[in-house]
UniProtKB/TrEMBL annotation:
Source organism of the structure: Lachancea fermentati
Lineage: Eukaryota, Fungi, Dikarya, Ascomycota, Saccharomycotina
Record PANTHER family: HIGH AFFINITY CYSTEINE TRANSPORTER, PERMEASE-RELATED
Single GO molecular function: cysteine transmembrane transporter activity
UniProt keyword annotation of Amino-acid biosynthesis present: no
Keywords per UniProt: Membrane, Transmembrane, Transmembrane helix, Transport
Family matches, as Pfam families: MFS_1 (PF07690)
Entry membrane topology: Multi-pass membrane protein
Transmembrane segments: 79-96, 146-166, 178-198, 210-229, 241-262, 342-365, 372-394, 400-422, 434-455, 467-489
Subcellular location, principal: membrane
GO terms under cellular component: membrane
The protein's name: LAFE_0H00298g1_1
Localization: Membrane
Superkingdom field: Eukaryota
């Protein structure tokens, strides 16, 4: 039998080579089904290098029947409406700190800490310097349970937001923003990993915009909180009270994370034993990818670096995120357009409402149409493209039109989250995913270091250079890179579709409470192969 997966004895990826016609084999499609003396030739993956769920499947899979169509629908609804809101809630508090930075620019923090436009921009840049350095924390996602990592990070960023209230100088703000970026650096990748563990590729695609509504809609909730704070007369500075409220919300969410956030399907408290097995089966069947792996594989790091798709995703995020400082800048723009502090909170609510509406529409479209991610990215980039061009061309005295154009830029985040979801579903191999995540977040961080600096005080109030840079990079070159990714992945799918459909037989060596001489032949997703190794992997488009 010819194998599509090959290897050498003692290879760096933890495999060995087997060439025997009579080996004792445990036949596994979605767990363990029977025993046979089927011939096996090819690479045998060591037990430490396979999916973290293998031990759980060995113990429980044989006792769980196949899922029926009705049970499948029920399980899908249950997983989607628990995992997505849970991750979205964490994402909400994660992005709330960005809203605090923006609102404090009009709540008096600048006066109390001696900030000005350029120092404010510097504080944002330092946040992303910390963000880049914090990518080293991705090792934690490979070595420790995801749920515990998210809980610790959530507690730390709650604490840092509380500490903002004692800042008395811009140097203190610089320090706090740096460490906040360092702590938050891997939060979004961690949430992305969790959703990939529970959702099929299609579910992950259509729920991505819904997940992101908590970021886009952050302006609504935070806007109403700010609106309420402005109507009371606290004994402390308004911006400090605002920080305390946001930090308290983050701390409550941290408690929920400690209670509910799973490491992977095997310890999800909201699933029965039968449902845990079904979730693992359906995710591995539909994605062809492993759920979790705790061994860092050097060859997968090298493959991620050599794969041009990794660098095209990096190009997208670098270009796209040059527009990200708009979320920090919008309150300043509102003020320069003559909008009152109270009016700014209401315009922000409108901004967030339009964002959420667009995200829901994007989710509906993705749910009804398959393989339209790249086209959706292009479509949702058109709104901020038109808005940015209008901000350059409209007269400054047309206040309401300019406010409307700023709001038209709101859906820019939809393209970002669609691409972030796509980068996960378009690759396989846990270490390769983590490596690509690191590359992408580095590109994201570098771009966000640059982004605040294009909004120079001397260019205000029109900021022509900033808007032009966004038009060229974020809303033209970024969607163009998405189309290029689609073109390459579609060609890979075509080559795989016309290649001979030969059976792939791979094994997993013992050490899993089975005889040392026996092998497990498994669902290929259990083997933690990369998308380039696994010729059965089909790229979503």
């Amino acid at each position: 039998m010819k194998l599509q997966v090959s290897g050498d004895s003692g290879s760096s990826d933890g495999s060995s080579f087997v060439n025997s016609d009579k080996l004792h084999v445990n036949i596994v499609e979605n767990g363990i089904e029977d025993r046979s003396t089927e011939p096996i030739r090819g690479r045998v993956i060591k037990s430490r290098d396979v999916d973290a769920t293998l031990s759980f499947l060995i113990e429980n899979d044989a006792d769980v029947p196949d899922i029926s169509d009705e049970e499948e629908k029920h399980l899908s609804r249950k997983v989607v409406w628990i995992i997505v809101p849970l991750c979205a809630l964490v994402d909400f508090v994660l992005y709330a700190d960005k809203a605090t930075a923006s609102y404090t620019s009009i709540f008096g923090m600048w006066d109390d800490t001696n900030l000005d436009q350029n120092r404010y921009n510097n504080s944002t840049t330092l946040f992303y310097v910390g963000y880049i350095l914090g990518q080293v924390n991705l090792i934690l996602l490979q070595k420790f349970p995801v749920g515990r990592v998210v809980a610790v990070l959530s507690f730390l960023w709650s604490l840092i937001i509380f500490l903002h209230t004692v800042a008395s100088s811009y140097q203190g703000v610089y320090t706090l923003r740096f460490f906040l970026g360092f702590v938050e650096a891997i939060a979004v990748p961690a949430l992305n990993v969790t959703m990939s563990q529970f959702l099929t590729a299609d579910e992950k695609s259509w729920t991505a915009p819904l997940f992101y509504t908590t970021c886009l809609g952050n302006e609504i909730v935070i806007g109403f909180i700010a609106f309420g704070i402005l109507h009371i007369k606290p004994k402390i500075a308004i911006w400090k009270l605002f920080m305390i409220v946001i930090a308290s919300i983050s701390l409550v969410v941290t408690g929920l994370v400690c209670l509910l956030f799973p490491d992977n399907p095997t310890n999800a408290k909201f699933l029965s034993l039968k449902e845990k097995v079904w979730v693992i089966r359906r995710v591995q069947k539909t994605t062809g990818s492993s759920i979790e792996q705790k061994v860092i594989k050097r060859y997968q790091i090298v493959e991620a670096l050599k794969d041009p798709i990794s660098w095209l995703f990096c190009a997208f995020f670098f270009c796209n995120q040059l527009s990200n400082n708009l979320v920090y800048q919008e309150k300043i723009l509102f003020k320069q357009l003559g909008v009152s502090t109270l009016g700014s909170t209401l315009v922000s609510v409108a901004y967030g409402g339009f964002s959420v509406t667009c995200a829901i529409l994007a989710s509906i479209i993705m749910g009804k149409k398959n393989n339209v991610t790249a086209y959706s990215v292009v479509f949702w980039s058109l709104f901020p493209l038109v808005g940015s061009i209008s901000m350059v061309s409209l007269n400054w005295d047309r206040t309401y039109a300019l406010l409307a154009m700023i709001c038209l830029c709101a859906p820019k985040g939809i393209a970002w989250i669609l691409m972030f979801s796509w980068t996960s579903t378009s690759t396989s191999g846990y270490t390769k995913k983590m490596t690509r995540n690191a590359l992408i977040m580095l590109s994201y961080g570098v771009s966000n270091i640059i982004a605040p600096q294009i909004w120079r005080a001397k260019d205000g109030p029109r900021y022509y250079p900033a808007w032009i840079i966004q038009i060229i990079f974020a809303f033209f070159l970024a969607p163009l890179s998405a189309l290029t990714i689609r073109f390459i992945l579609a060609r890979r799918n075509m080559r795989r579709a016309i290649s001979p459909n030969e059976e792939v037989i791979v094994g997993v060596i013992g050490g899993m409470s089975i005889e040392s001489s026996s092998l497990i032949k498994g669902n290929i997703a259990l083997l933690d192969l990369t998308d380039l190794e696994n010729e059965k992997f089909v790229y979503p488009l």
